Amino acid sequence: MAKSLAREQEFSAASAPAIATGRAIDLVHLARQSLSDRALEVELLGLFTRQSEQIMERLASDLSGSDRRWRHDLAHTLKGSARAVGAGKVAMATEAYEEALYAGRNEDEQARCIEQLSACVREAQAAIKDLLPEA
To answer: Which CATH architecture group holds 2-131?
Structure first.
């Protein structure tokens, strides 16, 4: 248990620069994650772009008709993907949405979280497009 907590704190510290800089994508974090392998960075950013599009489409669908656990699982997947590429704002917005789901907040509050998350995802995708115009 202590090892797990230590790893979580270590991971949080590793992702802090993306949050602290306010950049849509923390390139230093991405380079660390990919061991500075440019081809891997391109692949990870492409995967994040496609996955975030798919997940956001699904999350933006009918809020009242979806299973809360299913929505949480999608959000959790997006949060992990965002952390992997250094998209700190997306990770934070996803975490806020997860908390809204856990707390059982109403559909309006969940919709506001989705709107904020969507804005962060669009910002990250725009940054990726600037980095990889061919993507």
So the answer is: Up-down Bundle (1.20)
Write down the domain spans for the chain: 2-131
Q: How far apart, in Å, are the Cα atoms of 73 and each of 3, 21, 54, 77, 95?
A: 24, 28, 13, 6, 12
- Start-to-end CA span in the chain (Å): 41
Output 123-127 pairs: Cβ under 8 A, ≥24 positions apart. 123/24, 123/89, 124/24, 124/25, 124/48, 124/52, 124/82, 124/87, 124/89, 124/90, 125/49, 125/52, 125/53, 126/24, 127/23, 127/24, 127/25
CA separation for the pair 92, 84 (Å, rounded) = 13
- Work out the angle at residue 23's Cα, subtended by the Cα atoms of residues 20 and 24, and round it to the nearest 5 degrees: 125
The per-residue pLDDT of the chain, averaged, comes to 84
| pLDDT of 8 higher than 50 | no
Alpha-carbon span 120 to 40, nearest angstrom? 23
Are 87 and 25 a contacting pair, CB within 8 Å? yes
pTM listed for this prediction: 0.80
